[in-house]
Amino acid sequence: MRALLALLLLLAASLAHAHKPSDSYLAIHVEGSSLSGQWDIALRDLDFAIGLDDSGDGDINWGEVKAHRADIAAYALARLKLRSGGADCPTRATEFLVDDHSDGAYSVMRFAASCPGEVTTLEVSYNLFADLDPQHKGLLRLEHGAGTRTAIFSPERATQTFELAKISTLTQFFDYGREGVWHIWIGFDHILFLLSLLLPAVLVLQGGRWRAVERFPPAFWDVFKIVTSFTVAHSITLSLAALGVISLPSRLVESAIATSVVLAALNNVFPLVHGRRWMVAFAFGLIHGFGFASVLRDLGLPQGALLIALVGFNFGVEVGQLAIVSAFLPIAYGLRTSWFYRRLVFIGGSLAIVAVAGIWLVERAFNMKIIST
Amino acid sequence: MIRWTTATRTTRTSIIGTVIDWLGVLAIALFAIAAHAAPYVPKDDTVVLEHLPVRPNDPIARELRRLRADLAADPNDLDTALGLARRYFDLAGSEGDPRYVGYAEAALKPWWNLPDPPLEARVMRAILNQYSHDFTGAMKDLDAATREDPKNALAWSWRAAIHMVQADYTAARADCESMKEIDAELAIGCTAYLDGTTGKAAAAYRALSAALARDAKASPDVRVWVRTRLAELSIRQGEVKQAEEHFRAAYLEPVNDQFLLGAYSDFLLDQGRPDEAIPLLVDWVKSDILLLRLALAEQALKAPKAREHIEALRSRFDAAALRGDKLHQQEEARFNLYLLGNKEKALALAQENWKLQREPRDARILLEAALAMKDPMGAQEALVWLERSGYEDPGLHQTAEKLKALKR
Predict the structure, then answer these.
(1) Which candidate from A29, A45, A175 shows the least CB-CB separation from B9?
(2) Where in chain A is the domain with CATH 1.20.1250?
(3) B363: chain A residues, CB-CB within 8 Å
(4) Nearest 5°: phi and psi at A205?
(5) Domain limits at B361?
(6) Residue B3 has pLDDT above 70, yes or no
(7) What is the rounded CA–CA span in Å between residue A34 and residue A123?
(8) ipTM of the complex as predicted
(9) Nearest chain B Cα distance for residue A272, angstroms
(10) Do A132 and B289 touch (CB under 8 A)?
(11) CB–CB contact B2 A25 (8 Å)
(12) Do residues B370 and B397 touch, judged by C-beta distance below 8 A?
């Protein structure tokens, strides 16, 4: 019967993967010539390789991991080689943390590396645990620009090369376009300014009183003129500011934008300018352009693709704006004769805009926080 | 998993869409915090992060350390390497952790890629390869090993085991026959295992219980193995009470056996007694196959823990997919069918699994998934297998009949 022991093995096939095998999770983010990364390695595996359980009690605690930080970094980073354009990109650990994965606790090591020049091809050699556990795998997530790719490292595929293709012009254009749309939609000050100018478009001022327009075309052309002049104006200053021709302090710009919203909305309640609102749109549009420029700067302007980014972003702003206008106009036209529109939306809405923009103005001019936007 | 905190650019199609997106992001973030927190710095040095399966001062750990040190001194010493590999392979079986198979492979490194390694290294290489479901590679080595040494019982056993998994019963019978001259008892075990799957469960049961009665000094491992087989053979003959007696006897033996726990808890689940399965499984949440049974039992009882365990299983299957593993398909099919209610994926996984593994439980999940999808043709191969093999389990035949009724 002893020989039956061998047959016990018959079961092994079905038992094979009762546990998750050993994996590490490696993330590398490429930005120009510098790389930043995060490497999650199972504590169990590190313990097997370099010994972490100093107390010998069968438990690994944070103190033991901390005491071995330098060992972990030396052991792991010696088994990860990053190369770009034939030259090494030396790595160094920057931070140690812990994370819980589905199969236990992992040491999380953040690291940085710098390559001699901008990284266009990245060669990754991964040899962690290759000598101890040939079944270990490294799961890489490589991020570059808007693109992310993944790869699996094993002893058979220990070195892999990644072409970090330049992002195509078209992709870049649409990326910035998307940002433009996004910015106008979350930039409530721009929306409120535009709305303040558009609210009276379906009305006419006769003898100091607002009446509904009789036909659609005049309302449409009014809107068209306002939107176009706003667009032309902010495009001019956006370009000038983005190209560094003019630069204004942002506090001044932001305060001026808030002022523009207050004035535009006040003009609805106490009409001062009516027929020539497109000129107001133009004048204040110049200010709003500086506001857009600061967003674009925050996004990071790609060297060598400045024009693409600028045109793409502006294009996005216009598309976002057009979407708002085309949603607004039919509804406003349909409701123009109602009390709801003329009193509640037009007067009430304008007053509300004055109030909100007034608070912004105070906040921005005096650099204080009253409401959060 | 890995998360970058840098903002990502997303397309927004409308303001409402944006709001919904943000709510979605918030929900995901909250979920991520609950289910899988971001990397963190533990509160203080005494926070225990991980329990090691083997304590450094444990006799097993000491023996492994000694063998590793010996091997490090002379990596080309085959005896030490084989000793270490065997030790690790045993651990893989009792702990269910595939890491040990990797460690065993590392010990055999000097011989691992040789076209003609020494006999014992070759057999060990086959055993480790079949663990990763490389049945073709394993069989090549076993063929060569049995040619070189026709009296190698271990090699014949493994041939039989792989042929059983592949449902190649003719070849398995030939392997059992070859064992008769080497070791009569071993051949009895082999034949019983084969007969039990091919319509002769009663004869197999008699042969195995007689063998067990003959050997009073059988080790606990052997007794667990035989009792588990006897329980399975009883189920196949519809002898529920008798099956339970064998499971209980095996469970009381002083050894850990993942397969026994899996089979016993499946039995209890089938009998509609999930509450009794839970105590067998609670200490084994690290084992995917046992966690699956635990989650099934908790779901049947509507226990609050079920959600957490289902999420844990989901992330383990996701991690395996990320790694490119296809070793889990039988369990993943069961997970999808019974815990996620994703019948379509369950059937696809069960079909994929059937290409590699054709044991009764592989047939069962394939039939059940096809029945859930009302797609009898989807399990055609399992239906053919059931008819040709002569496999007896009444439960499986009922499922097959329901499936066949759909054809008409």
Answers:
(1) A175
(2) 169-366
(3) none
(4) -95, 115
(5) 304-321+328-408
(6) no
(7) 14
(8) 0.73
(9) 33
(10) no
(11) yes
(12) no
